[in-house]
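Before relying on records like the one below, remember that each one covers exactly one chain. Contacts with other chains, cofactors or solvent are not represented anywhere in the record.
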Amino acid sequence: MSEETFDVIVIGGGPVGENAADRAVKGGLSAALVEQERFGGECSYWACIPSKALLRPGNALAAARRLPGVPVGGALDPVKVFERRDAFTSKGDDSGQVEWARGAGIETIRGRARITGEREITVDGGRVLRARHAVVVCTGSVPKTPPIPGLDEVPTWGSRDATAGSTVPGRLAVVGGGVVGVEMAQAWARFGAQVDLIITGPRPLPRYPDFAGDAVAEGLRADGVRVHANSGLERASEVDGAARLELTGGQVLTADEVLVATGRRPATDDLGLEVVGLAPGKPLTVDDSGLVSEVDGEWLYAAGDVTGRALLTHQGKYAARVVGDVIAARAAGKPVDTRPWGKHSSTADHYAVPQVVFTDPEVAAVGLTEPEPGAPHRVVDIDIAVAGSSLHADGYAGKARMIVDTEREVLVGVTFVGQDVAELLHSATVAVAGEVPVGRLWHAVPSFPTISEVWLRLLEEYGL
């Protein structure tokens, strides 16, 4: 067997792994990036990028229809939308990502990697790689499949199928009301599919404030989606090539495809973790420098979904940048600053995680979405009703929430719901991560007439 040595070996060539390897190389180390599927990972080919490419045309058409004098008619052309999506995903060709990595000084290796010893990786059972300083696991996550009787016998989509499909099903059932479920339900409904969304609770997006889930449900219904709330899929069977779905309460649906969107779990099943005393299939517990707990020697790190901390591409890339910098600093014998908000600490994972749900209306949130029990938190809820929103769309409807720590007088959470609120989110993220006092925020004057004037109204409602 051949053996090669690098300073750092990164398992998983998605955006998170790319960032970890890139920061290590920029810190003066050599790095190998090992990927078993496509360099660029889930986000580039099956998740963030294609899903937003599918959603954007429908959102733009709906926005145009809310303005008088704009000549809008007809419906979306799914074929054109699919062509544009394919342009963003390069139809699965990852040669551009490989070229970028090599240009950044990263050695790319295609194959399945397993940990076979301390600082040792074996690729496809034969190629042995050894790391002088660190191994970083960035293998992401995989979909969860619920144990529903008969589900494995009917035509189903996973999230990859939903973002990669090029034929509009006549009838699509979506199981799960999280981000993937609501985004894909709306996208495919706007392409002309009859969509049924099956959720167990009273509204979708249960991790967000009730007003967010209610607004998204209303938006879905406006696009013809039938929302089956307080329900669930009890049993599935195949009848004449279609799926027969028995819901909680006795209702029966028939679908040509069933999208199973019931969450994701860390992809750690076949990494050889048992070699270092860790349990396969479980998240890798890390500290804020990305160092894996319960493994001696300060050599095994992880970042992204695989840690179970914040299953978002941008948050994984953030953690990966920290990991790469930490490894480079420790290799050079330089100080490592792991204090909260220090250069080598992914502190934002705990306090300032931003996320956008790209439905119509959009949901954008950072930090807390609900006050913590017993904490000195005050919630301010208002409608988004300013000159900028009125000009943005006729009948604009939106809401904003601000959660303030009244002892420190700083924001700990902000949520926006409404058309095009995603672009409001970074200002909220800066305020939360920067712990900007609300008294100082009062002096951050929003431009007129923009939707950002909602900040002024929030602060006025708070009493400033």
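The radius of gyration is 24 Å.
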